[in-house]
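[C-ALPHA COORDINATES]
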Amino acid sequence: MKFKEFLNKLQNLPDNKKKIILWVVVGILGITMGIFWINGAINNFSKIGSSVGQIKLPEIQTPKTEIPITETTVNKTADWKTYNVDSLEQCNFEIKYPADWSAYTWPLHFVVAPGGLVIEQDPQTHNGCSFQMTFDKYSEKEKYCYPVILSDGQDCKKTFDLMISTFKFIK
Protein backbone atom coordinates (compact mmCIF):
# COMPACT_ATOMS: atom_id res chain seq x y z
CA MET A 1 0.00 0.00 0.00
CA LYS A 2 2.45 2.41 -1.11
CA PHE A 3 -0.24 4.73 -2.38
CA LYS A 4 -1.55 5.37 1.17
CA GLU A 5 1.93 6.08 2.38
CA PHE A 6 2.42 8.52 -0.51
CA LEU A 7 -0.84 10.33 0.43
CA ASN A 8 0.15 10.53 4.07
CA LYS A 9 3.50 11.94 3.12
CA LEU A 10 1.79 14.60 0.97
CA GLN A 11 -0.58 15.53 3.77
CA ASN A 12 2.29 16.11 6.11
CA LEU A 13 4.06 18.58 3.76
CA PRO A 14 3.92 22.32 4.49
CA ASP A 15 1.14 24.31 2.72
CA ASN A 16 3.35 26.18 0.25
CA LYS A 17 4.81 22.88 -1.06
CA LYS A 18 1.29 21.43 -1.35
CA LYS A 19 0.30 24.42 -3.52
CA ILE A 20 3.33 23.95 -5.77
CA ILE A 21 2.56 20.26 -6.27
CA LEU A 22 -1.13 21.05 -6.96
CA TRP A 23 -0.26 23.62 -9.65
CA VAL A 24 2.29 21.31 -11.29
CA VAL A 25 -0.35 18.52 -11.48
CA VAL A 26 -2.97 20.98 -12.87
CA GLY A 27 -0.45 22.25 -15.46
CA ILE A 28 0.46 18.76 -16.61
CA LEU A 29 -3.23 17.84 -16.93
CA GLY A 30 -3.92 21.09 -18.84
CA ILE A 31 -1.08 20.51 -21.28
CA THR A 32 -2.16 16.91 -21.84
CA MET A 33 -5.79 17.95 -22.47
CA GLY A 34 -4.62 20.72 -24.82
CA ILE A 35 -2.56 18.27 -26.87
CA PHE A 36 -5.55 15.95 -27.23
CA TRP A 37 -7.82 18.88 -28.19
CA ILE A 38 -5.36 20.18 -30.84
CA ASN A 39 -4.96 16.68 -32.35
CA GLY A 40 -8.75 16.29 -32.52
CA ALA A 41 -9.19 19.75 -34.13
CA ILE A 42 -6.52 19.01 -36.76
CA ASN A 43 -8.19 15.69 -37.53
CA ASN A 44 -11.63 17.35 -37.88
CA PHE A 45 -10.28 20.17 -40.06
CA SER A 46 -8.59 17.68 -42.39
CA LYS A 47 -11.91 15.83 -42.73
CA ILE A 48 -13.67 19.10 -43.54
CA GLY A 49 -10.98 19.99 -46.09
CA SER A 50 -11.32 16.68 -47.90
CA SER A 51 -15.13 16.92 -47.99
CA VAL A 52 -15.03 20.49 -49.34
CA GLY A 53 -13.06 19.20 -52.32
CA GLN A 54 -15.87 16.74 -53.06
CA ILE A 55 -18.62 19.38 -53.19
CA LYS A 56 -19.79 20.01 -56.73
CA LEU A 57 -21.14 23.49 -57.23
CA PRO A 58 -23.68 24.06 -60.00
CA GLU A 59 -22.29 25.52 -63.19
CA ILE A 60 -23.88 28.74 -64.33
CA GLN A 61 -24.05 29.10 -68.06
CA THR A 62 -23.88 32.62 -69.36
CA PRO A 63 -25.05 33.42 -72.85
CA LYS A 64 -22.36 34.45 -75.27
CA THR A 65 -23.09 37.79 -76.80
CA GLU A 66 -21.19 39.24 -79.69
CA ILE A 67 -20.68 42.96 -79.78
CA PRO A 68 -21.26 44.22 -83.30
CA ILE A 69 -18.43 46.17 -84.82
CA THR A 70 -19.65 49.61 -85.74
CA GLU A 71 -18.16 52.08 -88.14
CA THR A 72 -15.97 54.67 -86.52
CA THR A 73 -16.40 58.40 -86.83
CA VAL A 74 -13.27 58.54 -88.99
CA ASN A 75 -14.87 56.26 -91.59
CA LYS A 76 -18.13 58.21 -91.61
CA THR A 77 -16.36 61.53 -92.10
CA ALA A 78 -13.54 60.37 -94.39
CA ASP A 79 -15.02 61.98 -97.51
CA TRP A 80 -16.12 65.17 -95.74
CA LYS A 81 -14.65 68.62 -96.31
CA THR A 82 -12.57 70.26 -93.59
CA TYR A 83 -13.28 73.89 -92.79
CA ASN A 84 -10.07 75.35 -91.40
CA VAL A 85 -10.33 78.82 -89.85
CA ASP A 86 -7.05 80.36 -88.83
CA SER A 87 -8.09 83.98 -88.95
CA LEU A 88 -11.64 84.33 -87.62
CA GLU A 89 -10.62 87.00 -85.14
CA GLN A 90 -7.95 84.72 -83.69
CA CYS A 91 -10.37 81.82 -83.23
CA ASN A 92 -8.29 79.09 -84.83
CA PHE A 93 -10.21 75.87 -85.34
CA GLU A 94 -11.21 73.26 -87.82
CA ILE A 95 -14.37 71.25 -88.31
CA LYS A 96 -15.46 68.67 -90.85
CA TYR A 97 -18.78 68.79 -92.68
CA PRO A 98 -20.50 66.78 -95.43
CA ALA A 99 -19.05 67.24 -98.90
CA ASP A 100 -22.37 68.37 -100.41
CA TRP A 101 -22.86 71.14 -97.82
CA SER A 102 -21.57 74.74 -97.98
CA ALA A 103 -19.80 76.85 -95.37
CA TYR A 104 -19.24 80.58 -94.92
CA THR A 105 -18.25 82.93 -92.10
CA TRP A 106 -19.15 86.42 -90.98
CA PRO A 107 -16.78 88.73 -89.09
CA LEU A 108 -16.71 89.32 -85.39
CA HIS A 109 -17.92 92.81 -84.46
CA PHE A 110 -17.58 94.11 -80.95
CA VAL A 111 -20.97 94.55 -79.22
CA VAL A 112 -22.93 94.62 -82.52
CA ALA A 113 -22.85 90.95 -83.42
CA PRO A 114 -20.70 87.95 -82.78
CA GLY A 115 -18.72 86.44 -85.62
CA GLY A 116 -19.39 82.94 -86.70
CA LEU A 117 -19.58 80.10 -89.14
CA VAL A 118 -22.60 78.75 -90.97
CA ILE A 119 -22.60 75.31 -92.56
CA GLU A 120 -25.76 74.63 -94.53
CA GLN A 121 -27.17 71.79 -96.51
CA ASP A 122 -28.76 74.07 -99.15
CA PRO A 123 -27.50 77.69 -98.90
CA GLN A 124 -29.57 78.85 -101.92
CA THR A 125 -32.99 78.14 -100.41
CA HIS A 126 -31.95 77.82 -96.74
CA ASN A 127 -33.98 74.61 -96.62
CA GLY A 128 -32.70 71.52 -94.88
CA CYS A 129 -30.06 71.46 -92.18
CA SER A 130 -28.29 74.55 -90.94
CA PHE A 131 -25.42 74.39 -88.47
CA GLN A 132 -24.15 77.63 -86.96
CA MET A 133 -21.21 78.27 -84.66
CA THR A 134 -20.97 81.72 -83.12
CA PHE A 135 -17.78 83.18 -81.66
CA ASP A 136 -18.07 86.02 -79.22
CA LYS A 137 -15.68 88.33 -77.37
CA TYR A 138 -15.84 90.31 -74.14
CA SER A 139 -13.74 93.34 -74.99
CA GLU A 140 -11.54 94.79 -77.74
CA LYS A 141 -8.37 93.59 -76.00
CA GLU A 142 -9.45 90.10 -75.00
CA LYS A 143 -11.08 87.74 -77.45
CA TYR A 144 -12.49 84.53 -76.04
CA CYS A 145 -13.30 81.99 -78.69
CA TYR A 146 -15.99 79.63 -77.62
CA PRO A 147 -18.50 78.02 -79.94
CA VAL A 148 -22.19 78.62 -79.41
CA ILE A 149 -23.81 76.01 -81.59
CA LEU A 150 -27.24 76.54 -83.12
CA SER A 151 -28.79 73.89 -85.31
CA ASP A 152 -32.09 73.38 -87.08
CA GLY A 153 -33.95 70.16 -87.61
CA GLN A 154 -34.06 66.91 -85.69
CA ASP A 155 -33.40 65.00 -88.93
CA CYS A 156 -29.92 66.49 -88.93
CA LYS A 157 -28.99 65.55 -85.35
CA LYS A 158 -26.75 62.60 -86.26
CA THR A 159 -24.90 64.69 -88.83
CA PHE A 160 -24.46 67.54 -86.33
CA ASP A 161 -23.16 65.11 -83.71
CA LEU A 162 -20.57 63.83 -86.17
CA MET A 163 -19.60 67.38 -87.12
CA ILE A 164 -19.14 68.35 -83.46
CA SER A 165 -17.00 65.25 -82.86
CA THR A 166 -14.53 66.54 -85.49
CA PHE A 167 -14.27 70.09 -84.06
CA LYS A 168 -10.89 71.08 -82.61
CA PHE A 169 -8.89 74.23 -81.90
CA ILE A 170 -5.69 74.22 -83.93
CA LYS A 171 -3.59 76.84 -82.12
